[in-house]
Amino acid sequence: MIRRTQTIYVTLDPFLSPRGTVLHHFDQFLAGLGEAEFPCIWMTGLTRAQLDEPRRRLGHNDPFIGESGSGVYLPEDYFHLKSGNTIRLGRFTCIPIAKPQPAAAEALSELAADLSVSAVSLRSLSPRELSQNTGLPASEAEQIRMRDFDELFFFAGASESDIAKFASEAKVRGLTLQNPGPFWSLSCGADLAKCIRELGGLYDRALRAHALRVGVALSPLADKALAIRSHGQLDSIAASCDRTLLLKGRQRSPETESASEVVDDDAKAPNTAEGPPSAREHRGQTSFHLHSPDVWENVLAAILSRR
Questions:
Q1: Across the strands, what pairs with 7?
Q2: What distance in Å separates the CA atoms of residue 75 and residue 70, rounded to the nearest whole number?
Q3: Which of 288, 211, 279, 179 is nearest to 244 (CA)?
Q4: Mean per-residue pLDDT for 63-86?
Q5: What rounded mean pLDDT belongs to the chain?
Q6: Pairing of β 92-96 and β 119-121
Q7: C-beta of residue 18 within 8 angstroms of C-beta of residue 54
Q8: N or C, fewer C-beta in 10 Å, the chain?
Q9: Which DSSP string corresponds to the chain?
Q10: pLDDT for 189-239, tens place per residue?
Q11: pLDDT at position 32, please?
């Protein structure tokens, strides 16, 4: 039963290893959200097959956005009100944002052939090749290519100019090309922001009021505004959520002589209360240090302060 007016949208992949191990004590955050009865929506590039075991182990019973913004997966009977455009995928009612397979597989094949670029889909690999390329046991590797919407692939012998031409032509053809991890993703219409808006609308209808949307994501850069402008996923989250909370990892200092030395961006600042109070308040409310021992307590406190 949905009882609260905040919904939390979390980028899952930085907190889950390819073998399903929880990273950065992410389970503590999930436990806190469960206690507060806030729905937690996972946003991931993984498939529903890959998420089956982590969802059971972590007790995740809320919707998730899968395959890099390709669709919204709703557990059975989660909402009494349904979106007008839904399809049934296994145990889930899905709101498709991208076109279902084989649309992406066909689009990848046509695009690669037209540009004479070698793009090798994971679907085309033998079980042994798939395991070698993913570094996973055969059974787990097979789950990666059990995809409902997008097509994962890698370039073989392509130059940077070839890849740039490929990306440009994909955009012209209305395809969504992403590079979320070790493999590229091509889909016919994936859109993370649209996924959030579609699901947010269902929560609003169920609650008969606006359910605040809070995005929680790992930032690749220390500067929040620059990170959002330069990173497509963060831009989509910021555009479709009411608040965006960013977790900052350790940043490499450009002044550091040794390439192996890593520093925390805020650790370089003096430990004083100088600066405009509004700036200090803004930092405290929206940015957090991923490696801080009390990071999840602070993130939860920021969320709970807006009940």
A1: 213
A2: 16
A3: 288
A4: 89
A5: 86
A6: unpaired
A7: no
A8: N
A9: ----SEEEEEE-GGGB-TT--B-TTHHHHHHHHHHHT--EEEE-SS-HHHHHHHHHHHT--S-EEETTTTEEEEETTS-SS--SS-EEETTEEEEESSPPTTHHHHHHHHHHHHHT--EEEGGGS-HHHHHHHHTS-HHHHHHHT--SS-EEEEESS--HHHHHHHHHHHHHTT-EEE--SSSEEEESS--HHHHHHHHHHHHHHHHTS--EEEEEEEESSSSHHHHHHH-HHHHHHHHHSSEEEEEE-PBPPTT-SSTT--B-GGGGS-SS--S-HHHHHHHHHHEEETTSTTHHHHHHHHHHTT-
A10: 999 999 999 999 999 999 899 999 999 999 876 566 655 555 788 999 999
A11: 96
Task: Provide CB contacts within 8 A for 138, sequence distance 6+.
Answer: 127, 128, 130, 131
Is residue 206 packed enough to be buried (19+ CB in 10 Å), middle (13-18) or exposed (0-12)? middle
Residue 117 contacts by C-beta under 8 Å, 6 or more apart in sequence? 111, 155, 158, 162, 163, 165, 166
Regarding beta strands 6-11 and 40-43, do their DSSP bridges make them parallel or antiparallel, or are they unpaired?
A: parallel
- The reported pLDDT for the residue numbered 57 is 96
- List CB contacts of 254: < 8 A, sequence separation 6 or more: none
Give Cα 69 to chain centroid, integer Å: 8
C-alpha radius of gyration, the chain, whole number: 20
* pLDDT more than 70, % of the chain: 82
Q: pTM score, two decimals?
A: 0.86
Burial (Cβ within 10 Å: 0-12, 13-18, ≥19) of residue 296: buried
Q: Is the pLDDT higher at 224 or at 111?
A: 111
